[in-house]
Amino acid sequence: QVQVVDSGGGLVQPGGSLRLSCVVSGIIFRLVPMGWYRQAPGKQREVVAEISSSGAGRYTESVKGRFTISRDNAKNTVSLQMNSLRPEDTATYYCQAGATGLYGRDYWGQGTQVTVSA
Fold first, then answer.
1. 27: number of Cβ within 10 Å
2. First-to-last CA distance in the chain?
3. Is residue 102 very low, low, confident or very high in pLDDT (cuts 50, 70, 90)?
4. What is the pLDDT of residue 50?
5. Which of 18, 67, 95, 115 could form an SS bridge with 22, CB 3.0 to 4.6 Å?
6. What angle do CA 77, 80, 86 make, to 5 degrees?
7. CA distance 97 to 29
8. pLDDT value of position 27
C-alpha cells in the first residue's frame, strides 16, 4: 500500500518562512521523481517545484529564488523550504510521487494548507 503524507503548512506573515515535508512509503522512493503542487481557491492545481530521482530541482518562475526542494532517499522524504512568502503563495500544497513510469500512476498526499497573511 502506497502512502504519501504531507505536512508542515500553517499561517505565516508575509516575508516569513515555512518548511513542508512529505513522507512516502510503499514505493522504491529513490527511483521516483517527486513534486510539490498547489491549488488556490478557484484556481487550477499548478506545479510549484519538482525534483528528479537524481536530485535535480526545477521551479515555477514565481517561486524561483525563494523556494528550495530537496529529498532524502534514506528517509523517503521530500521537503519544500519556502522563504520570503507572499500572500499569493496562499494555497493548499500537495506532495506528488511521479510514479507513473514505474507503477502506472502518480500518488498524491492529502494536502497541507499554507496561508500567508498579516
1. 17
2. 41
3. confident
4. 97
5. 95
6. 160
7. 8
8. 93
